[in-house]
Amino acid sequence: MTPWLRAQGGGVEITLHVQPGASRCELAGEHGEALKVRIAARAVEGSANAALREFIAECLGVARREVRILRGEKSRRKVLWAPIDPELARRKLAVPPAPEHPPGRPLAGPSRSWGGTENDLNGENTE
């Protein structure tokens, strides 16, 4: 099981690190022992919490009214509860690992800005 998800009371507790005011709502991988979630709504008068509950409910396939904020109402670190099987929740919230570099773009080569040569970078220049 992942550190941010645990079975509790007929459902799961999900520990989240929330980034409000993002360009869109999305799961953004792990952040320490929490799942990072970007939310488009700003943290003003509970709008980010409402958007978070709606987004997580949509990801898990449960009704928004069934997703509860247990801890962290006014914090970026929150613990939510939802009535879903822990294994199913883990699969639905799985975030694929980020690629080593963006696909279709070549890996960066040796830096030319410092004035050295490629042999200097490889340790082949022994003056």
Q: SSE layout and pairings?
A:
Elements: E1 5-8, E2 11-20, E3 26-31, E4 34-39, H1 47-60, E5 68-71, E6 77-82, H2 86-92, H3 118-122
Parallel strand pairs: 2-4
Antiparallel strand pairs: 1-2, 2-6, 3-4, 5-6
Please name the defining characteristics of this protein:
127 residues; alpha+beta; Conserved Hypothetical Protein Mth637, Chain: A; 3 helices
Give the percentage of residues in beta strands: 25-35%
Class from secondary-structure proportions: alpha+beta
Relative helix content: 10-25%
Unreliable segments (pLDDT under 50, ≥5 consecutive)?
110-114
Helices and strands, in order, run as EEEEHEEHH
CATH architecture identity of the domain at 5-92: 2-Layer Sandwich
Q: Looking at this structure, what is the CATH superfamily of the domain at 5-92?
A: YggU-like
- What is the CATH domain class of the domain at 5-92? Alpha Beta
Cα-based radius of gyration, to the nearest Å = 21 Å
* Average pLDDT score: 84
Shape: globular
In total, the number of strands is 6
User: What distance lies between the first and last C-alpha atoms, to the nearest angstrom?
Assistant: 55 Å
Looking at the structure, the CATH topology of the domain at 5-92 is: Conserved Hypothetical Protein Mth637, Chain: A
Query: What count of helical segments does DSSP give?
Result: 3
The major sheet is characterized as: 6 strands, mixed
